[in-house]
Fold these 3 entries.
Entry 1:
Amino acid sequence: MSKGIVRIYYGEGHGKSTAALGTAIREASHGKSATVISFLKEKSEDSEELLKKLEPELKFFRFEKSEHSFDELAEEEKEKEIMNLKMGYNYSKKVITTGGCDLVVLDEVLGLVSQNIISEEEFLELAAAVPEDMVVICTGRQVPDSIKECADELYQVTLEK
């Protein structure tokens, strides 16, 4: 059985999430189903409300309870959020392994690896489980070499000016 596509947008520049969300919206407008799962970002009610209007073609999930981004939290708060982030990651595994949609965006999932919330091995197992006819887009600032190797498409986003 052939594997689906794993696409990675990474780098220090802005636009990774925007590119991933734009792809999800485009796919939804063509009658495909898309799921977006956001990790490590502060809550943005305006954006979330807008994305919710695109259901059922585009489904949006954020499992964190805090209003702030993970980096802004005190260590004690981070420990609480790690459980929520892991729950979100487990949900993403379920969506991917069951073939629950055509496109999955795991926004800032690579940050889970950088923060040691999930291991590289866990990510690689998930990437290997992507079913045929599914595209999974992952974003983040840093990408370990092993994850770069597993990607079918790799896009580096950098700030030039």
Entry 2:
Amino acid sequence: MLIGCPKEIKPQEFRVGLTPNAAQEAISHDHQVIIESGAGAGAGFDDADYAAVGAQLADSAAEVFARAEMIVKVKEPQASERAQLREGQLLFTYLHLAPDPDQTRDLLASGVTAIAYETVTDRAGGLPLLAPMSEVAGRLAPQVGAWSLQKANGGRGVLMGGVPGVGPANVVVIGGGVVGTHAARVAAGMGADVTVLDMSLARLRYLDDVFSGQFRTRHASRGNTAELVANADMVIGAVLIPGAAAPKLISRTQLGQMKPGAVLVDVAIDQGGCFETSRPTTHADPIYEVDGIVHYCVANMPGAVARTSTIGLGNATMPHLLALADKGWRQACEDDPHLLDGLNTHAGHLTYYAVGKALGIDVLSPAKALKL
């Protein structure tokens, strides 16, 4: 199979879909790899690194899209990229379709077979291709939140760990999954006073046992959430419903009950955001204010640490990439129902239920799509 990797064009996206190591593995399986010149530069990989393992270098993204049988990316294809996709081609990347009707319509019109990293599952019910970026985003959230809290950025001017005689920042993490766990761990490590909210009592027990009181846990009832948010210096939104639009956990009305200059960090912004007042921002212009509350809603947070993120993502995606290339997507998905969970579109059909529900589009079951 000819595997293609274009340079990411989303603003301030420095990651790359294929590392030289992944390219070498694919080539060792008798596949060909074509990568756009300069695609790896943001993550610290030179063209020479790819050439050294036998990858072909393309002068343009157009050449990659025109020639490749499988396109491997990091972020969802932008409009100009979607226009170059075609039926019979395989797209393997993050998609986040539920809050993005334009992208969904374009993918369906192209006829491309699209497998989304974020909906591939594993035997434990986890999301193994989303997990590494959730870990990165979770660990970044307190860091960018601390920066946003600085007075020069519109924040309350509160130091995360305080100083002797002055209390630390009060941080609330909504969601105790992968993102929330890593966010709480880092925020507590910075000296903040941290509380994690989650609906699952089993998850709260797990966090309490594993982290031995490094942070508090509370059940995510409406009352508890409202109380804690009103007293928070920083709120980190870390709630995920796989493949679906994120639920809105804080309304605009609640902003008026928060401390002026408090910070909201919305890690769920790729799925539409979990605060009513959230809208996507970029690393170049990451924050904005609504009713005196600072919002940090960068839609590709892990891109800020592109090398770590690229390597971590490549480690996770490589086995699936090789399976798709070695067997073809149909056989690979027949052999692995967890990979089939990643199928979002095929031959003009939407194949992921949560996206169809969010956008009001009819869905063809993945099992039936395999037969087309």
Entry 3:
Amino acid sequence: MNKKIVFLVEDDKDDVGFSIRAFKKNKSLLKYIIMAYDGIQAEKFLFSEDETELKKIQNMPDLIILDLKLPFLGGLEILKKIRERKYTRNIPVVVFTSSDDPEDLKNSYLLGANSFVKKPEDYEEYIETLKKVVDYWLEINMTLSHDRTI
């Protein structure tokens, strides 16, 4: 089985720590975790104009876990850009947020989110929920894969 790349876009330090613990439960599956702590970092990683086509393709994650409430550039703006770009449009995006605002839910799906998951407040539930999300999107669900070669 190919190991996978997960791109976590999260600004809350506690949630980053919880997420890393959840990923460690899947360590045999994950190749590595790429992190961005705000919308600008996420944008730079996903849409860098400095990279060659081959490098862009090879560095693309297999799953993006995206918080909505990010500094500088919000999660919905990042999601919109992800769906507009050739190299990122087929990557599964899970909005993983503390928001329970119906508008955030609606707008996430309208912009192309594959899933919208509310972050549990309980530590153990948080880790278990994120583990289930990663298991589903990287082990169970069949997605259009992006070819890492040209």
